[in-house]
């Protein structure tokens, strides 16, 4: 791991030790879309109906987060319309701050159901 990745993992572990809800967090490891360089990004996760989802809010940023444009995200299930709205409503129930993220943006914040490289 490079220094940046070591810092991300260290911060992640310290926050878990400080009492963050470990069940709501994951570290996504992926290759950058342009460079192919390995990246690690901490994400809040959501379990619904036995399926893992992540919210591509980037804390309400104007653009989708970088990881959303990577090949693993291309394999993800990204619901639209009513299905996306229902999943996002559940995400807001789990973390009310997500409603503020959506309210600040014209873009519909994606809900992605990532799949592993082996398709599971």
Task: Give a topology summary.
Elements: H1 3-17, E1 25-31, E2 38-48, E3 51-55, H2 71-75, H3 81-94, H4 97-103, E4 111-112
Would you give an account of this structure?
The protein has 4 helices and 4 strands. The protein is an alpha+beta fold and 120 residues long. The longest helix has 15 residues, at 3-17.
CATH class: Mainly Beta
CATH superfamily: Electron Transport, Fmn-binding Protein, Chain A
- Alpha-beta classification: alpha+beta
Approximate strand percentage? 15-25%
Strand order of the largest sheet: 1-2-3-4
Biggest sheet overview: 4 strands, antiparallel
Q: What gyration radius follows from the Cα positions, in whole Å?
A: 14 Å
Number of helices in the DSSP assignment: 4
Summarize, please.
The protein has 120 residues and is α+β, with helices and mostly antiparallel strands.
């Amino acid at each position: 791991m490079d220094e940046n990745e070591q810092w991300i993992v260290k911060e992640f572990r310290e926050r878990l030790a400080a009492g963050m809800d470990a069940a709501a967090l994951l570290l996504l490891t992926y290759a950058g879309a342009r460079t192919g360089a390995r990246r690690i990004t901490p994400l809040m996760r959501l379990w619904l109906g036995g399926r893992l989802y992540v919210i591509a809010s980037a804390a309400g940023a104007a653009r989708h987060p970088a990881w959303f444009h990577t090949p693993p995200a291309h394999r993800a299930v990204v619901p639209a319309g009513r299905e996306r709205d229902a999943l996002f409503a559940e995400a807001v129930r789990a973390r009310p701050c997500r409603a503020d993220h959506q309210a600040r943006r014209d873009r519909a914040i994606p809900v992605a159901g990532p799949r592993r490289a082996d398709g599971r």
